[in-house]
Amino acid sequence: MKTLYIVATPIGNLEDITLRAIRVLKEVDIIAAEDTRHTKKLLNHYGIAKPLTSYFEHNEIKKAEQLISQLKEGKDIALVSDAGTPGVSDPGYRLVKLAIENSIPVVSIPGPSAIIAALSVAGLPTDSFCFEGFIPSKSGERRRFLASLKGIKKTIALYESPKRLLESLADINNILGNISVVVAREMTKLHEEIIRGKVIAVLEDLRGRGMKGEITLLLNLKEFKAEQELSLIDEIKILQKELGMPLKEIAKIIAEQRGIPKREVYKETLKLKEEKE
User: What is the pTM (predicted TM-score) of this model?
Assistant: First the structure.
C-alpha cells in the first residue's frame, strides 16, 4: 500500500508551483487529473513524463474505486485539478474519503489557491473568513442564498461567472446593502485585476466592460447592519419585498440567522398574513 498525494498546481502562472510538487509529480507512478490535456501542458513545461488518468466530476465515483485498488497494489498516485488545490470546489473529496476509509496515507502538497490569493490582497478583514463556493446561477436561488448569508459576520469568499457578475453584485446591493466588495479577476495571470470598493461603485465601474476570466468575489459582511436591530415583523416585510418568497421560507431563513425557533418567526408571519386579509 502506497500514498495518495493531493498536489496543488498553478492557478494561472506556471511559475507558481512548489519544488516539492515538481518532485512528487516526477516520483509518483500515476497522476490523476481533472483534465489530462490541461495537465499535460504543465507536465511538459517541467519535463515530467508520467502516466495520466482522468478523474473528474462525472467519473469520480467509479474512478475513485479504481485508484484505491491501484494504491493497494503499491502504486503512488498524485491527484491534481485544472488549477489550485484539489478538493476545493474541484473533484477530490470522494477519493480522499475512500483512501482514509481504507487506511491509505493521504499527504497534502500545498500550493496555489484562488481564494487565499484573493484574500491576501483584498484589504478586507481576514481574521475570520468563510468560503461559500459558487453563487447559484438561477436568480431566485441566488437571492435566497445571499439572504442566508446575513447572519455571517465575516469576510465571505465566493466564485462567480463573469457573465453573471453584474447581476450578482446588484442582488448583493439589494439584499446585503452597499457593503465593501473585492472582485479578483484572473489571479496570477497576465490580465490579473483587483477591483475594490463599495458594491454600487464597483457596479458602476464594471458596467459595459464585458468581463472575462475567472472571478473570485469577496464580501465584507462585517459591514452588514444587523437585522436583529429590526423587529421580527419588519424583517419579514423587508425580506418578502426583496425576495418575493413564500412566508414559510422567509421564516426558515430568519430563524436560522437569529438562532431562534422557526415556529416563533412563523407566528409573526401569520400576523402579517392576517393584516393583509
Answer: 0.79
